[in-house]
Amino acid sequence: MAAAVLFALFSFGMVKVKTRRQVIAVLVAGMTGVTLLAPRPARAQGTLVGAIQGVLNVINGVIHVGLGSIENVRNTMNTFYQQVMWPVNLIHQAQGLATQMVAQYRASLANIFSLHFASATLPAPQALEQIARDGQTSDFNALTANYLNVYGPVPGNPSASPYDQNMTAMDDALAEDTLKTLKESDQADTMSLGVADQIENDASEAAPGSAPFLTATAVVGAIESQAVMQKMIAAELRQEAALLAHRTALDKEGASSAQRLAGALMNILH
After folding, report:
1. What is the residue-averaged pLDDT of the chain?
2. How many CB atoms lie within 10 A of CB 158?
3. Is 0.70 surpassed by the pTM of this model?
4. What is the rounded distance in angstroms from the CA atom of residue 131 to the CA atom of residue 128?
């Protein structure tokens, strides 16, 4: 910039001046302008460069050595984890085995669980059998309607005595209760199979250290399956208790009938 100003002054002066004194005056003016426009040297520039160089020396020296030591420790720890605690080759081997087992058995097991054993031949029994095996718990009213279509409603008076009506109603209630429990069990089985498939998928992609979490999930699923099994056993016990009560009721009714018959015979003989 100073050179440009000097050139302008010089050019302007050369155009206007005509004498030696004017030429000298123009040159003096140009030198003065250059002096005023020229930047002053910074006194602290040398000190600042030295400070920066000192910081760079510290970074390249002590800090660099410390970072190198930290990196060595990290590499040693990673090697220990990969070779001793969680061997990478064994982890890959286990993941490959899980993937192989899924590919080998999942389809076959799915076919077994999806087998249909429907054997009813008439329309009403077919409808009841289908709804009893659909594994849904939102159609209990339809189940009751189809049950009545097959087994009929409880007969009223005078077709059946109050005793027979009570017996029939109780038998129907327990039968429907067991069918509903079966539907709940089928739905729970479907959910358990879904959880099992998810655990298998996660096992084939599990990260080191995640095995306890997968194990905990599997244990929870096993406990839920056991709970469903216990519920089914309870339903079976209710049916056995109802059957025993029904047989006992028949014995009581037989005893009452024999007593009434004996009384009637005694009245006839007297």
Report:
1. 78
2. 6
3. no
4. 5
The CA-based angle 40-41-43, given to 5 degrees, is 125
Cα separation, 170 vs 246, in Å, equals: 9
Residue 260 has pLDDT above 50, yes or no: yes
Chain CA centroid to CA 6, Å: 79
Placement of tokens 């498939």 in the chain: 197
Structure tokens at 182: 């079966």
In contact, 143 and 179? CB cutoff 8 Å: yes
Residue with tokens 């009545």: 148
Report residue 50 as tokens. Answer: 């030295």
Q: How much is the CA Rg of the chain, to the nearest whole Å?
A: 49
Closest alpha carbon to 235 in 179, 188, 192: 179
Cα-flanking dihedrals φ and ψ of residue 119, to 5°?
-135, 0
Give per-residue pLDDT as tens, 67-123: 777 878 888 887 787 777 777 787 778 778 878 888 888 888 888 877 778 889 999
Q: How far apart are CA 82 and CA 258, in angstroms?
A: 85
Contact criterion met (CB below 8 Å) for 231 and 185: yes
Task: Output the six-digit token pair for 118.
Answer: 């429907």
Residue 218 tokens, joined: 């599997």
**CA dihedral (189, 190, 192, 197) positive or negative:** positive
User: Is residue 40 over pLDDT 80?
Assistant: no
- 61 pLDDT band, cuts 50/70/90, is low
Cβ atoms of residues 131 and 147 within 8 Å: no
